[in-house]
Write a structure and sequence with these properties.
Elements lengths: L1 H18 L1 H7 L5 H19 L4 H10 L2 H24 L4 H8 L2 H11 L6 H19 L9 H24 L5 H23 L9 H25 L5 H8 L2 H13 L5 H17 L10
């Protein structure tokens, strides 16, 4: 009984930690999305490397003996960079509910990508994908289309979800061969370096100014949602079936929307709420009968 309470408590704290990300990202403005994303993954990467310092030697030996691991790490880092840059940028262009609900389509994208790669998937995946598509239309293409969002922002959120699914697909074969924290830390650092290079090329010098508030927001994003939130998910997934964790993570858009409403006064329309509910319901249906890795 006590172990069950601990697991539920850890899962609840994990959901609360990741749900806070959207509001804190908005509070980091006017820092450009690419710098917010870079700061988040760099902070998370450094923290994970420090937490897994005992595994660095093992990780280094693995990379030296199998150079392909280094290439996969770079590819995974690039996909993670696209995920965070696209999703964070979407929050500036559409509502929190639409952004978080659309990026939550990640498990559906992962399942469809797995099918392309030869995995056997449940027919529930296709049912869930169809339901989610209908919910997406209700939320962004129906009566709610002009209610505080934009198709460009919605598209970026979808891109973020697809990139996250591809990131997990690349990492699936690697993470069983190498220490988890060392691998994840390396991927996050690779993503951060890539995002900083993009910022150096595309941003004007004036766009790189960081206030104390923005710096604290970035530090929070890297440590709380990035390390604590997903660290708790990775612990819980060892205690209960992974599909239950995946379904619990679907509460993130709900928590993110409530927090944005309380802290920033950002509300949603009825149709957006209905559409988001259908989208998340489709993701839940699509997760039936298949295991989805916990987020990173």
């Amino acid at each position: 009984m006590r172990e069950g309470t601990q697991v539920m408590g850890a899962l609840g704290l994990g959901v609360a930690a990741v749900s806070s990300a959207a509001t804190v990202i908005l509070m980091a403005a006017p820092l450009p999305a690419v710098l917010i994303a870079a700061g988040r993954v760099l902070v998370t990467g450094v923290a994970l490397i420090l937490l897994g310092v005992r595994d660095i030697a093992r990780w280094t030996r693995a990379v030296r003996s199998r150079p392909a691991l280094a290439g996969r790490t770079v590819v995974a880092g690039a996909l993670l960079a696209v995920h965070f840059a696209a999703w964070i940028a979407s929050l500036e262009m559409t509502t929190v509910l639409r952004s978080t609900a659309l990026v939550a389509l990640q498990p559906v994208f992962a399942g469809l990508l797995g099918r392309v790669l030869g995995d056997r998937v449940s027919r529930w995946l296709y049912v869930g994908a169809a339901v989610s598509l209908g919910g997406t239309w209700v939320m962004v293409g129906g009566p709610a289309a002009t209610a505080g969002g934009s198709l460009a922002g919605d598209g970026l959120a979808l891109l973020g979800g697809a990139a996250a699914a591809a990131y997990l697909a690349v990492g699936r074969s690697v993470r069983e061969e190498v220490p988890l924290r060392a691998y994840l830390g390396s991927v996050h650092l690779a993503a951060g370096v890539g995002l900083l290079l993009c910022a150096a090329v595309f941003l004007q010098p004036a766009g790189a100014t960081m206030s104390m508030r923005s710096a604290l927001a970035v530090l929070y994003l890297g440590l709380v949602p990035g390390v604590v939130g997903h660290g708790l998910f990775n612990w819980v997934v060892r205690q209960v079936p992974v599909d239950r964790v995946a379904l619990a993570i679907l509460l993130e858009p709900v928590g993110a929307t409530l927090l944005a409403w309380i802290v920033l006064g950002r509300g949603v329309t009825t149709m957006e709420a209905v559409g988001a509910g259908i989208v998340l319901g489709g993701v839940a249906v699509g997760s039936l009968g298949r295991s989805t890795p916990a987020g990173c």
